[in-house]
Design a protein that fits this description.
four-stranded antiparallel β-sheet; 24% helix; alpha+beta
Length: 278
């Protein structure tokens, strides 16, 4: 958390909040271990877009139109808030100060969010399944021979090298909507025979986005959206009637209890690098 839908909502919020504003500075809360950010522009404008679980801020010089790109990940709880300068929310860790007295802040209770200057998106993350659907499916199909797909489908759905933006609640909802698929089956077998899983990797995040995102645990919608519609949409994740177990990466996986007898957790050993799942 936040996942694909929440990143897209965050980009929407930044674009709405920053529209027409001139920013003069970026301040970092010294308690956060992230790098200090210096902008070589006197005045700059901000726009944002998302791709899977990443957020790209484009800072454009108001005079020369020169651009710089700041790539961010939200960690477990990151979101943005637009307030009057001096009234930033608690746990604001990266603050974009606007010349007329407002601040757009990255709020991150757990301090897991990261940022860095880049020229492009991270090369180790796959295409976005909602905005780059054809590239997303092609990328997986071309790589099915690799060892990453030797593991159960429920763990492989969290691998950001192939399923960029799919996280804990989205994988639970995707797999639950395929009731004939055993989530403990080897991923390669499922992906070779069940094309509906690709479609759901696109459609479930889009529906979550339309409903205002998953306001779970520490994540808050920047638009103050009513969380109840998405809670009703979620049939599996957080449902007390479902089964749950920690996967090999330590994340809680929610699933239909009819698969309990097939949950052969010790049958599979050794996942890819855990950082690929964050």
């Amino acid at each position: 958390m936040p996942e694909l839908a929440e990143l897209r909502l965050t980009a929407d919020y930044i674009n709405k909040s920053a529209n027409g504003l001139k920013f003069v500075n970026i301040k970092k809360n010294p308690v956060h271990k992230g790098k200090d950010i210096e902008v070589p522009f006197k005045f700059f404008r901000i726009s944002a877009e998302s791709r899977g679980k990443e957020l790209m801020l484009t800072l454009k010089d108001n005079d020369s139109k020169e651009k710089r790109h700041l790539l961010m990940t939200m960690g477990m709880s990151g979101h943005f808030a637009h307030t009057n300068t001096g009234s930033e929310k608690k746990h604001s860790h990266l603050m974009f100060v606007e010349k007329d007295g407002t601040t757009l802040s990255f709020v991150d209770v757990r301090r897991f969010g990261k940022w860095k200057w880049v020229d492009d998106w991270s090369p180790n993350r796959g295409p976005d399944p909602t905005t780059e659907y054809d590239a997303f499916t092609d990328h997986i199909i071309r790589n099915l021979h690799k060892s990453a797909f030797n593991h159960p489908i429920h763990t492989v759905l969290m691998n950001q090298s192939y399923f960029n933006g799919i996280g804990n609640y989205l994988r639970a909802e995707i797999l639950y909507r395929l009731p004939h698929i055993n989530p403990f089956t080897e991923a390669r077998q499922i992906l070779e025979t069940e094309p509906d899983i690709f479609v759901l990797c696109r459609d479930i995040p889009l529906q979550a986005y339309a409903l205002g995102g998953g306001q779970l645990k520490d994540w808050e919608s920047p638009f103050s959206t009513d969380p109840e519609p998405l809670r009703k949409f979620m049939r599996c994740y957080g449902n007390s009637q479902m089964a749950k177990k920690r996967d090999k990466n330590g994340r809680m996986f929610w699933y239909d209890p009819k698969w309990n007898e097939d949950a052969l957790w010790d049958h599979y050993s050794g996942l890819p690098n855990p950082t690929a799942y964050m």
